[in-house]
Every structure is written in structure tokens, then in C-alpha cells.
């Protein structure tokens, strides 16, 4: 059985390369060279390049779900769930910038079966956001908004962050989320 530490190192290197060069632009040789091992030896630790991509994207999907689910299930107001949810979303990206890049860009390179599993997790995540918006409308915290487009706006703002966010930048992830939510609520509230 391969050492867990070595597998994690290979995953981290593959993630970095996939985020820089894309999944299709990264070869097994690129990964093995970056790991300092022969390409053939890499297969002692992995079954395929796609296995690496799947594990990276599955971990990403799980991180988003695990960060949002407790917020949605909490007793907070819908406004606070929106604020905390977007903060959680941005923190996942902040803490996993390379993996977020791979998650958002490369998951479609997976086989049909694996892509369907990731899509199901993405759908579950969107459904959690839909619950927040529906609750806010039902309780009068949000105006009569188009919930589908509100959800798309939230996810578009959050998902695009990996393109321009700098962890050492002027604003923290929480400050960015607060600014986004304040702007959105200006249009969402009565």
C-alpha cells in the first residue's frame, strides 16, 4: 500500500499542474517529473491521471457542500445565511485556490460517469443556495426576486473569485463576501 503522504504530495503537484496547464495540457510525465520519480513509478501510487482529477474535484465539491450545509440548516435569518454562506464559499476558494481553479475549469474532462457524480454534488450545492433564497422570500427578508437569477448571481460572483483573488491582497475573503452581500442586499431587500 502506498504511503498516504506521498499520494497527497502527488495530488498537490497534479492539482498545481492542472491549474496552471489544464488537465489535457498536463501529462503523466509532467506529474512524475515534478514529483521527482519515473513516470512508470508514478503508477505505484495512482491508477490514472483521471483518478487524480476526480479526487481533486470530488474533494472540492465536498468542501463546498460541507461549508454551506450547516449554515443552511442553522436557525439564522436568511440574510445572515446568505452572508455566512458566501463567506464560507469564498473561504473554500481562498484555502484551496489551485484546487478551486481545477474544480471550476477541469471537471468536465472527467468520464461521463464521474462527471455525473460531480454534477450531482454541484446540483446539491445549488439546491442549498436555493433554500436560502426561498426562505428569505417566504419570510419577507428578500423582496419578490427571481430566485433562479439571484442564485446565479451569487454563484457567479463567488465562483469567479479564483480568477482575481489574491490571498495577500488588500481585502480578506470575509471582507470581499461582506461587500458582495451588501451590494446584493441593496437589490434584494424591500
UniProtKB/TrEMBL annotation:
SUPFAM superfamilies in alphabetical order: Homeodomain-like, Tetracyclin repressor-like, C-terminal domain
Keywords associated with the record: DNA-binding, Repressor, Transcription, Transcription regulation
Keyword DNA-binding attached: yes
Protein species of origin: Lihuaxuella thermophila
Organism phylogeny: Bacteria, Bacillati, Bacillota, Bacilli, Bacillales
Signal peptide, first to last residue: none
Keyword Transcription regulation part of the UniProt annotation: yes
Superkingdom classification of source: Bacteria
Protein name as catalogued: DNA-binding transcriptional regulator, AcrR family
Residue ranges annotated for the HTH tetR-type domain, each copy included: 4-64
Amino acid at each position: 500500500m502506498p504511503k498516504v503522504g506521498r499520494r497527497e504530495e502527488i495530488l498537490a503537484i497534479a492539482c498545481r499542474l492542472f491549474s496552471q496547464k489544464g488537465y489535457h495540457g498536463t501529462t503523466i510525465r509532467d506529474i512524475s517529473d515534478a514529483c521527482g520519480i519515473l513516470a512508470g513509478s508514478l503508477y505505484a501510487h495512482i491508477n490514472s491521471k483521471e483518478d487524480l482529477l476526480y479526487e481533486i474535484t470530488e474533494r472540492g465539491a465536498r468542501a463546498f457542500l460541507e461549508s454551506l450545509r450547516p449554515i443552511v440548516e442553522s436557525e439564522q435569518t436568511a440574510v445572515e445565511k446568505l452572508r455566512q454562506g458566501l463567506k464560507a464559499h469564498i473561504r473554500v476558494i481562498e484555502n484551496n485556490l489551485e484546487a478551486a481553479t481545477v474544480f471550476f475549469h477541469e471537471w468536465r474532462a472527467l468520464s461521463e460517469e464521474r462527471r455525473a457524480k460531480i454534477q450531482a454534488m454541484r446540483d446539491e450545492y445549488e439546491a442549498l443556495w436555493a433554500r436560502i433564497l426561498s426562505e428569505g422570500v417566504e419570510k419577507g427578508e428578500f423582496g419578490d426576486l427571481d430566485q433562479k437569477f439571484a442564485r446565479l448571481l451569487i454563484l457567479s460572483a463567488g465562483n469567479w473569485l479564483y480568477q482575481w483573488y489574491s490571498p495577500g491582497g488588500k481585502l480578506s475573503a470575509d471582507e470581499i463576501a461582506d461587500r458582495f452581500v451588501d451590494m446584493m442586499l441593496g437589490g434584494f431587500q424591500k
